[in-house]
Amino acid sequence: IWDFWKKLEWPRSAAYEFVVRLTEVTCKGAGHYADRMHNILEKTGYYDAEGQFDVTEQLCVTLNNIDYVRKTLSSIPQRLDWDQVVSDVTSKEDGADTAEDKRARLWTLVTSADEGMGNKRKQIISKIGEKMGVDILRYVSPLLSDPESTSPKTSITGLMKYLSTNLQFLSNNLMVDVFRLILYNIYCICINKAREAVDARPNVTPSVSDRLLKGLEMILPFFAADGHGLQQEEMETTQYKQLMAMLKMRKMDTRDLVCKYFSELAAQQAEKKQYDRGTLTVQVGYLAPRGQLCVKVLNGRNLPALDPTGMLVC
User: Which pLDDT score is estimated for 188?
Assistant: First the structure.
């Protein structure tokens, strides 16, 4: 269509509305294509919940095609020569629309179509993570449920094999940009499912927590892929840091935990805080035989004045 339009050599002064229409038709066609591809996945059972989920070639083709169409949309301004068309029509008209308004009208069409296709891609990728997450949780569980004598490497073998098989297939069949999105999504699913497994077993021993910690540390190089996968800063998400901090704490023995608690408490007390109503120095003691908490005021500084009723004087 674009080539045919150029061959028409339509008068530039009247070309703008035709270019708008061509852009609109192209964008609608792109959105319709994304919907059709998504519907095909539904009909072929992609959203079924039964059985182990494995990545298929059809799924990769769908994601690649949607991404290719999105890239094609981004070339519309050059292919239809927007700048020249807008320049010609605004230089020969005395209308209220400025050149910026006309460009904005065209860009709105492309941006809307791109967002729609991006949402379809996100929906498919999210479903990949959701369906793989069921299997990932099953493969993470041995890190917590295996006998304590089992090594982290042995307990995580099933997970690594499952990830390796599916990610290798994705890497071989997806465009680079799409693969990186899925890789990050699956990584986040692994961390979330590990946290889910930990929350389901709050009373595991320190040695088991240490095994899960070491198992998760093995995953990072796997997703980094010698610099071809995720970057270190991408993997150190808030969820990852919280999970690692929890596991490091849970693997401590009682003495280390008590020391950690009082160390943090001392750090909080050492912080200098400013108070608007002065300060009190108190002595607190607990009388166990009587079950009483005794508080003795030692001194006060910069305390506000009170009126005879005991209210603060403003």
Answer: 93
User: What's the angle, vertex CA 77, arms to CA 71 and CA 83, rounded to 5?
Assistant: 160
Residues of the chain with pLDDT under 70: 1-13, 47-54, 91-97, 272-275, 313-314
State residue 140's pLDDT score.
92
pLDDT of the residue at 2: 63
What's the token pair of residue 203?
Answer: 């009373």
**Entry pTM:** 0.72
Dihedrals phi, psi of 66, to nearest 5 degrees:
-60, -40
Helices of type H across 201-253: 206-224, 232-235, 238-250
Burial degree of 124 (CB within 10 A; 0-12, 13-18, 19+):
buried
Q: Quote the CA–CA distance of 231 and 63 in Å, as a whole number.
A: 23
